[in-house]
Amino acid sequence: MLLGSLLKTPLFELRSISGGFGIGSEITLPEMADVGQFPLLLHQEPSAKEALKSLRSGIGVVSAAGSGGEGKGKPYIAPAKGHAWFAAGMLGTACGIVDISAVLYL
C-alpha cells in the first residue's frame, strides 16, 4: 500500500493505492449491505497478519439470517484449485469534500 498525497489536481486528490492477487484461491464479495465490513475496504491499517486472518475467517460478515457476528460468515478468501484473482484499490477526495474509496476486482 502506498500512502500519502500521490496525485493532486484542483478537483481530485489521490491519497492511497493498493493491490493484491491470489493464485489457487477465490474471493467472495460481500452483499451490498455488508460492503462496509469488507476487509479490503476498511480504512484502518491492520498489520498484514491481522488482515490475512480477517480475510480467511470471514470476520465481520453478516450471517445469512442477518444477525451478524464475528466468524459466522463464509471466508472472504478460500482455497480454490485452478482459480486466480487480482484486486486494486484507491482512496481519494473529490472537490475537497467527498471521500472516495474504490476497489477493482478481476
Q: Which descriptors apply to this entry?
A:
mainly beta, elongated, four-stranded antiparallel beta sheet, 9% helix, 1 helix, single chain, 4 strands, 106 residues
What integer value in Å does the Rg equal? 15 Å
Main sheet: which strands, in order across? 1-2-3-4
Please tell me what the overall shape is. elongated
Structural class: mainly beta
**Which stretches are poorly predicted, pLDDT < 50 over at least 5 residues?**
59-71
Number of DSSP E strands: 4
How much helix is in the residues? under 10%
Number of helices: 1
Terminal Cα separation, in Å? 18 Å
Question: How does the major sheet shape up?
Answer: 4 strands, antiparallel
The portion of residues forming beta strands comes to: over 45%
Which H/E pattern describes the elements?
EEHEE
Mean pLDDT: 74
| Count of individual domains | 1
Summarize the structure.
With 106 residues, the protein is mostly beta strands.
Explain this structure.
- With 106 residues, this protein is mainly beta.
- It has one domain.
- The chain contains 1 helix and 4 strands; from the N terminus they run ββαββ.
- The protein has one helix spanning 48-57, and strands at residues 2-8, 12-27, 77-94, 98-105.
- It has a 4-stranded antiparallel β-sheet with strand order 1-2-3-4, covered by helices on one side.
- β3 (77-94) and β4 (98-105) form a beta hairpin.
- The longest helix has 10 residues, at 48-57.
- The protein is elongated and about 45 Å long.
- The chain starts with a strand and ends with a strand.
- Residues 59-71 have low confidence and may be disordered.
